[in-house]
Amino acid sequence: MPNIRDVAQRAGVAPITVSRVINDTGYVSDELRQRVEQAISDLNYVPNRLGPSMRSKRSNTVGLVVADITNPFWTTVVRGVEDAAYKAGYHLFLCNSDESVYKEREYVELLLSRQVDGFLIVPAETQFDVLELIQKQGKAIVLLDRYVSTRSIDIVRGDSEGAGYQLTRHLLDLQHRDIALLNGPRLASTAVERAKGYRRAMNEAGFSDKSERILWGEYTQESGYYQSLEALQWRPRPTALIAANNFIALGVVRVLDNFGLRIPQDISLAVFDDLPVELNLRPFFTSADQPAYEMGFLAANTLFERLGGNRSSELKDIVLPFKFTVRSSSAPPPSP
Fold it and tell me: Which region holds residue 21: left if phi is over 0, alpha if psi is between -120 and 50, else beta?
């Protein structure tokens, strides 16, 4: 990991000049400041905000960057991570990226400056800049929920493709033919995998890619609202909708209610990741649920194995099974 002396040498200045630029103390000419900032960028240098006493010690902290802490799925994942961390003697810095690559990088740089020992991260996109930055600092990292094929990183995720296939297959078995997938972001691996599962089931049933009905958006209630508004304008109108997560499903329910459409009498709805039982006293959605708590707990323990010195063992890509549950939100399509 580069230090302040490396930055000073690259910029051709004294370490005190680098310190002044970093801490914005004392006078530094514009020309020297630009040289120092360029050297910091070239070396991917992250200042240590904890002070010299921490340089050779572990902080016993890890950074956890999740997509949307307001979603009960991620809340449950965080609880699994926190329980594992507490048992292992670690504490968490929790950050919420809102699926933004800009917030994600800002938080990663902040966590690096706090000298966290390792990272658990849900990458906002399949871009690799942030992951590369973490690895260049020599930090252990485990990905949660998202898949990246071109990086040497441990991954703990759910079977998004299998769940997409199962939900679509269920609706096909009920004799639905016009099925729309209201999906997440195009650059999120989970959304890509869910679309793969949907396509596989549709193709097996004799429907080619030309007839697929996939809308891409965000994993939010607002996105579910506007995606379902668009889907209802299609002709023929879908007789069944698949929501790529629970928040999208909540947006769908609002629209169907506004249009006076009943679930499942007028249109069926199947969902990835139902709401927890504690928040949903009368479970309604046919759903494919990932084991959120287990995902967080297992990912954290995988990270702690690496931090414990097990850096040479084979990288893990752990795919957790989903639980498929049929409830009252899905039924055969209405008669013509």
Answer: alpha
